[in-house]
Amino acid sequence: MQATTGPSVQRKERVHARRRISPLVLVLSLPLLVGSLCKKPPDEVILEPVNVSNDSGRSEQPACAVDSRGTVHLVWTNEIGGNEGIVYAYKPTNGEWSVPVNISSNNQGSRFPSIAVGPDDKLHLAWQDASPYGHPGPVWRIFYSERAVGGDWTTPETIAGERDYVVPKLAVDGDGSVHMVWLYGGWYEGIRYRCRTSAGVWLPDETVVPYPAVLDHPAIAVDGSRSVHLTVGEAIDTAYNTDILYFTKPKSGAWSAPLDISSPRNGLHGWVGADGLGNVHCVWMDWTPPSYATWAVYRMRRPGGTWTETVRPCTLNCTALHSVGAIGPGNELMLPGSDTVRNHELRFSGHLLFVIKRPDSAFGDTTLVGMVNPLGSYKALAWGQNGDVHVIMEQQGEGSVDNTDIYWLGCRPKR
Questions:
Q1: Fewest CB within a 10 Å sphere: which of 51, 100, 216, 378?
Q2: Do the beta carbons of residue 146 and residue 159 sit within 8 Å?
Q3: Helix (H) or strand (E) holding 11
Q4: CA 14 to CA 237: how far, in whole Å?
Q5: Over the stretch 223-243, which tens digit does the pLDDT of each residue have?
Q6: How many CB atoms are closer than 10 A to CB 301?
Q7: End-to-end CA distance of the chain
Q8: CA 328 to CA 336: how far, in whole Å?
Q9: How far from 230 is each of 86, 214, 250, 359, CA to CA, in Å?
């Protein structure tokens, strides 16, 4: 891992634009282009996402999970009147969305929620919170809460908090243990890890990358053997060159040395998932100069530890594949994308696409689900055990950059 000393002010501002909502992320997301429909071909499917947040404030940074009963659990950051809170809503199978409720319940900033479902369908949730404020300014802490089936959210407990602990990500293994990572240290973050056993005991923090570093967008997954897999972006110099670093930690073992899985090209905004066969799937956005063309690329780690070559999962009819994914009930990997068409009947209409990789095979043909309205960018994806796919999108409202909403779209593409 290369040194990350002396980044420019411009670099700092770009890295830390995510504290609210990163313009770079919005550019990389390449949102669906939607227009007026003049005439609808008979075989065209129009999909209408549901506005779940549906308020006048800024709703962003969504995360979702699906339990064994098919209930979708959705959390996001909401700001109304200058106060940011963590909001939760759920949707039972074949049911309607519940009324969103604020579960952070304080008058300070609460951002970047991460949610996961345990083997007993218990919900586990973490976020960064500035309550109570420190002096002379806010000190971000990591808060954690859980919710048993049919129960209420527990009172948030502080998991970490010393100097700007931010952007937590968590995953739950088959034993019910919670695995969490977060960035720490202010403008030059390191990354730390903590485990909560199935008995509810938090083990001591472990440093994965020491402070100082310039890191961004951590992602975490746990496989069937309870090994933890982590990817994180790292700025390696002041010329906007970035790597995707991979780490693994076996059960009761130590963290591995970092492996640059994006080399020799640049990587941003990674996602990692583990299937039931022991494969680890990594996706990120490639933005190598001088063109800085952005597209999703993919690489897989086999159970024995060897890596496949980096490939583009989609090169045809997939102009905007995104770096989020989901593992299906048959150990398939699904990546979402979007495309646009223009002819005498349609004017810049957005399509929802899926690219699916089945076990021990290459990526198959693009699966077109249908037209999507309204405009939105993919933020999260979850695949239920019954085969339903849940797509979470973020859309900017009309007239104000402070008006954004969270949309849900459910569908069942061919597998």
A1: 51
A2: no
A3: helix 9-15
A4: 13
A5: 999 999 999 999 988 777 899
A6: 22
A7: 39
A8: 13
A9: 24, 16, 12, 21
Cα angle 363-365-369, degrees, rounded to a multiple of 5: 115
Per the rule left: phi > 0, alpha: psi between -120 and 50, beta: everything else, 387 is left
CB proximity list for 302: less than 8 A, separation 6 or greater? 278, 279, 308
Q: What is the mean pLDDT of residues 302-328?
A: 83
**Which amino acid appears at position 219 of this protein?**
A
Locate 3 and state its tokens. Answer: 């040194």
Angle at 379 between CA 376 and CA 385, to 5 degrees: 115
The 10 Å CB-count burial string (b at 16+, else e) for 345-377 is ebeebbbbbbbbbeeeeebeebebbbbbbbebb
Q: Are 395 and 374 in contact (CB under 8 A)?
A: yes
* Radius of gyration for the alpha carbons in the chain, expressed in angstroms and rounded: 20
Report yes or no: 392 and 379 within 8 Å, Cβ to Cβ.
Answer: yes
pLDDT tens per residue, range 20-66: 334 333 333 333 322 222 234 434 677 888 999 988 889 999 999 99
Tell me if 310 sits within 8 A of 285, measured CB to CB: no
DSSP state of 58: E
DSSP annotation of 277: T
Give Cα 235 distance to the centre of its chain. Answer: 19
Alpha-carbon 309 to chain mean position: 23
Pairwise CA distance, residues 327 & 267, whole Å: 22
Domains of the chain, residue spans:
9-33+65-339
Counting every residue written for the chain, the total comes to 415
Say if residues 180 and 194 touch (Cβ distance below 8 Å): yes
What is the assigned CATH class of domain 9-33+65-339?
mainly beta
Q: What is the Cα–Cα distance from 326 to 28, expressed in whole angstroms?
A: 19
**Three-state DSSP class for residue 70:** coil
Q: Which bin fits 348, alpha (ψ -120 to 50), beta or left (φ > 0)?
A: left
CA neighbor of 166 nearest in space, from 145, 180, 148, 155: 180
Closest CA to 412 of 378, 386, 379, 375: 386
Please provide residue 280's backbone torsions phi and psi, each rounded to the nearest 5 degrees.
-115, 125
Strands (E), 92-189: 101-102, 110-117, 123-129, 141-147, 157-160, 165-172, 178-184
Could you tell me which residues come within 8 angstroms of residue 198 by beta carbon, excluding any fewer than 6 positions away? 175, 176, 177
